Amino acid sequence: MTSSTSSTVTLNINGEKHTLSVDHRTTLLDALRERLDLTGTKKGCDQGQCGACTVLVDGRRSVSCLQLAVASGEREITTVEGVAEGDRLHPVQQAFLDLDGFQCGYCTPGQICSAIAVIEEHAAGWPSAVTEDVRPQAAPPPLTPEEIRERMSGNLCRCGAYVQIVQAVARAAGESRTETEESAA
Question: What whole-number distance in Å separates Cα of residue 126 and Cα of residue 104?
């Protein structure tokens, strides 16, 4: 039942459509966790500052604690639960696992979603604040540790696993480049 303070919204999450009646003030994060039981996305600061709630919306990073569920209808939302392909982990997930890119694991889902977007943004040639040559005709900069740290700076890790996180992102980016090169051949 809807009222003047609620609406029915259809959320496309991890390839499945979910129709919910939500209060207009309900965040995407609360809809995911409280209404759809997708608890991989974590609630950290609830102010958009820690990145624990990062999900992909239409392939781009979004802190779900600041996005309203009613504004998310008909958009492609991917949570950490939706990044693997069946039993095969996403290359970013595998790299985090292989390189211990986590300690307590609380921030890891947001870190993984952010890292997936970082790799795609870099491959598309998007500059960061530390990119030296930002001219449109310049090739994407090397994905150095400095570039990775800057691009991942919106995701905090209280345990301090940053060294392993940077290594995991670099490894996954290398694997993504290799897969792209193999597909083009």
Answer: 31
C-alpha to C-alpha distance for 8 and 26, rounded to whole angstroms: 12
Between CA 101 and CA 91 the distance in angstroms is 13
Instruction: Give the phi and the psi of residue 17 in degrees, each rounded to 5.
Output: -90, 135
C-alpha to C-alpha distance for 50 and 180, rounded to whole angstroms:
31
For 1-37, write each residue's pLDDT tens digit.
556 899 999 999 999 999 999 999 999 999 999 999 9
Q: 122 with 151: CB under 8 angstroms?
A: yes
Q: Give me 168's structure tokens.
A: 């995991």
Report CA 181 to chain centroid distance, whole Å: 24
Tell me the three state secondary structure of residue 85: strand
